[in-house]
Write the structure tokens for this entry.
Amino acid sequence: MYSYISIRHNAKRFFTKNVGPIRNAAVIFAEVPSSELEVDKHIKNVEDRTIDLNTINTQGGVVTKNLVVSIDPYMRRRMRAADLKSYLPPFKLNQPLTNFIVGKIIKSNNNKYKVGQFVYGNGGYEEYTVHFKDQAETLRILSDEELKLDLPLTTWVGAAGMAGQTAFYGLYHIGQPKKGETIFITGASGAVGQLVGQFAKREGLTVIGSAGSDDKVQWLKKELCFDHAFNYKTANIKAELARFNPLNIYFDNVGGDQLEAALDAADNFARFIECGMISLYDTSNTHGIRNLVLVVTKRLKLEGFIILDKNNDEHFNKEFYTKIPKWIANGELKVKEDITKGLEHAPKAIVGIFKGKNFGKAVIQIADN
């Protein structure tokens, strides 16, 4: 855990130094993949980049020393050709990957931000990121009150960040859970799924989850108190769901044959929360859904969402940040993280999430505070 006192003290000490050009290692997007992502081919470490903190012009922005950076499945969708459109622009070839970071401000030319503050927002897979004015304005300062919660900084890019927002918004605002209902969550041990399950238990739902290993299944049952969980790689999915059907809510992180099985098991007027389909992201072999007619005959509600759409929703952000970090800090929410230490190990960790090698929220710890 990071103590509030040591965070502030160490921040002060760091900024008294006046240094010349220093290393700014990064993980870059090297080549557009046509199928499965490969280390050292599509994403690569670059060690010989530098940055001069004394002379860099932030143009009204800030420079952050990046401490942690998130790994998320949606990053794979950005590893595409520049002319292909989607809800986020593609990564730029030979430039650092980007995602949500927690960083420490080490240079500021913006009155909103002070040297030594910790911020959450979009940054690079690199040791230092220059955030020009427009980019800097999107960074969220971690308040003194939030730092006093003593959460690990990794948690602010996970359960107390985008993953938590995704779970919270998806279940409560789209799923509209009611006590006594049954929910099925795919990718249930992942960053989003583990939180959805706990939220659902709080609301009195019967919670079923799937995961990709027996260890993950046991953790869901024993630690998170899921009513049932199974290994989708070895189980008969339709038979597992038949034990608890009909389903009232389906929280989809995976897609594919599990989505198809959920359609079969759904009750009339069930709500399908379409959050992600990781089974389709890193392969050219997609699974077509053969029973979509059930959306009509069962009068199902299927709603997809992108949590980034809520970035500027002040009401939602206030609701989330006044509740979730405190729930984590006081133990009401359990959080499992899969932390990889060292930016140089990031490419392997990124590839690993598409093979189910992570157990919990995948995060890269770039530097110690």
Notes: Residues 4-158+337-365 form a domain with the Quinone Oxidoreductase; Chain A, domain 1 fold (CATH 3.90.180.10). DSSP finds eleven helices and 17 strands in the chain. The chain has two domains: 4-158+337-365, 162-308. Confidence is low (pLDDT under 50) at residues 1-16.
